[in-house]
Amino acid sequence: MNILVVEDDQQVSTMLKRYLSRQGHQVEHAVNGQAGWDLFSSTPESFDAILSDIKMPVMDGLAFCNLVRKNDFDVPIVIMTAYAELEYTIKALQLGALDFIQKPFEFETLEIALAKIESLALPKQELAEILPYHTARMNFAIPSRTRYIYMLVTHFQKHFKDICDHHKMNVKKIGLSLIEALTNAVIHGNLEVDSSVKEESWQRFNEMVKEREALPEYSDRPVLFSYDVTAEKFEFVIEDQGNGFDLSKLPEADDLFSMALSGRGIFLIRSFMDEVTWNESGNTIRMVKYLEEPDEPDI
What integer pLDDT is reported at residue 266 of this predicted model? Predict the structure, then answer.
């Protein structure tokens, strides 16, 4: 692993660097939290773990941990602490440190802490091995407010990016399809803001959306969103409580030029998904994306 040691005691840092290097790790050293942050933030992808003291000049370990987590970096941090600093250790764990070892420590204790970190970093070949046994099902019933759309899509992308990467799929294209389908359900379905309004005036369209989001008779209607993930496919079902639409008026799948401004979302969904169907009334959409086996690596 590539390890950043943040320690102001030169003797301790030298001892750690020699030991970790003998174990096959690459080690960088910083003399305090500020120097550690400057080094880490310049190339955060370069580090697999951080070992940090708590009490240091300029910036202590607590402030350093807080800075790393506040900037949404999830690198594992192990705190090195004296017994008398237990209160600070608890605070460091609350700020996002993964583990701690007490000074003076035996190297076996350090080895155990690093072994736990390595076990959490699942190698890609092991990820590929476990994916065929993966299933996930989730159901949501969200109020008809547009801000929930992006929360749902962020949730999906965060939890299934590894699967998409493994299958050489763009998780953002799936996310965009979900945004389009959920937007149709919220705005055109439950809020009943017709797409023809935005063809006349975007300003009026946005005003109507905000007005109806403030009216419970519209915004309290739930949009039902579910996904079913298996080793073979992603399947999404989105249902609104609106009146639906006439399916016979849908343009052909490849006829972009016949689509008005309001048909753009359907075109994108059809472009990114393998199967797209609606129920008879048009207020429920089902979208499927099949997971193809990735190419075998060249030997």
Answer: 82
